[in-house]
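Hey Z.,

So I finally got round to the iron/sulfur cluster thing we talked about over coffee. Here's the setup:
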Amino acid sequence: MFRPPSRARVLRIRDRLREVYGIPRMAPHGRPLDELVLTVLSQSTNDRNRDVAFLRLRERFGRAGIDYYEVLDAPVMEIEEAIRPGGISKVKSARIRQILAAIAADPRDPEDPLSLEWMRAAPVAESRAYLCALPGVGRKTAACVLLFSYGLREIPVDTHVSRVGTRLGLFRPGAPFEELHDAMLALTPPGEELEFHVNLLRHGRRTCHARTPACNECALARMCPSCGLLAQPSRQQSRHGG
Ligand code: SF4
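And the result:
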């Protein structure tokens, strides 16, 4: 029977992660459409190809920033050509157009619908529901848009955050992503959304790997109920980086 962690335990984990990774500083960038488009571009590819595709889109449709009205009006073939290095460009260009068209059709801000500026002051639940109703947009993407663009109280739970949090006993094992997002919000102190997300993510990338977590060098080992229960990298694997 899973019991949610106590507040004291959550704070101990936060403090330990903070000792190792510090407090991330990243001011909200105010560009929600960039966040949405980056999510589409990141499907089935690595970060590098995603970024190349994004930069090409910016070169083709703007300079300092992408003019999304221009993207919306362009033939889909032009978008496809610009983002080709990101892979499955036919699918992605169509999806980008669908998202932009859906936002442009929204009467909430008839002067400048693609700015999504209304989200700055709207209740988070309303913005989340709006974003999740867009084509192909789920809870994690909506959380990225709200947290990274406007610094609002949402927290993306990706595979790293989900894995590390579950191993540390923060989440119910096997919980679906919708529940994980709610649980993450419930346990994170207000104002620490970015820190919790980034530091769990860093820990997942650097130490608590999916298949072979390095428990023997983990700063959270003493407070982790999963410590040593999962496969450790053999000496030979460690030596040869495999
Ligand atoms: S002790 Fe192991 S399972 Fe627990 S957080 Fe650290 S690396 Fe992950």
